[in-house]
Amino acid sequence: MAIYVVMAPPAGNKAEDAIFVRDSFTWLGFLVAPLWLAWHRMWIEAALTFIVMAILSVAGERLGLEGAGSLLSLLVSLYVGFEGQGLRIASLRRRGWREWGVIEAGNLADAETRHVLETGEESEEQPLPRIVPDASQARPPQTGMALGLTHTPGRP
Description:
This protein is an alpha+beta fold. It has helices spanning 27-31, 33-39, 43-62, 66-94, 108-120, and strands at residues 2-8, 19-22, 98-105. Helices cover 47% and strands 12% of the residues. Helix 2 (33-39) packs antiparallel against helix 3 (43-62) and helix 3 (43-62) packs antiparallel against helix 4.
């Protein structure tokens, strides 16, 4: 089962526009960190990641430590792989999105279904109609013998 953080859009937008962020390792964030960050519109994070990886590569090449520069760039990629979804949630919060809740589901479709079912319960329920008995359709009182330990109606 996977954990999905549901981010509700800013006020005035439809609830159907919610974003589901899976809380897990991001392979694309690990493999192509600056591109993954830019894809999710985290421009500052993407620029910083690109600059840090470039500086580490150039510094490693200038100092003759190509292996160390590549290893440090790999650490930056690992950070984005592990913390990329957390960075994405923080970016959405800065843009006015709010955290609706957390859903545990097997896949994204199940998470969306659970979200729709849970948000449908929040709608205002209509009160049940009041049932008033109609005296004209009532059975007439029965006279005569009664079964059981009761007395016969009309007799003491």
